[in-house]
Input
Amino acid sequence: MEQELFPLAATVILGWGIPGAIILVAIILQYKKRKKYYESLTKALELGKSADEIKEIFSIEKQPKERNCTGFLKGGIVVMGLGIGVAMIGIFVPDVGLFASAAFVIVLGLSLIAVYLLTKKNYKTK
Output
């Protein structure tokens, strides 16, 4: 009986506990960030700043990103690597479904690389 409960308990703890802890930490960090923002906002109000001055203080201009298509290339290489890894697992664990999955993932990676090759000409001209 105890031997049957141990894998179940480990699955529940690892399967739900770790993602739960990650989500909890993200929520706490977001709360602290907002709290710091509101504290600085109330401090500005206490100092007698007008609404326009406060808006100017807290406005952050986003720098325009230089757009390029290297993300497609990087993504394609990563996805192809995953597909090759799944295919290598299929060598050691003979299963037809595993090779089909690997082939599908590799084709997805190749399609991302094809998108990179097709769109890089557009980005060079701009």
Remarks:
- Residues 77 and 109 are 6 Å apart (CA to CA).
- The chain has a mean pLDDT of 84.
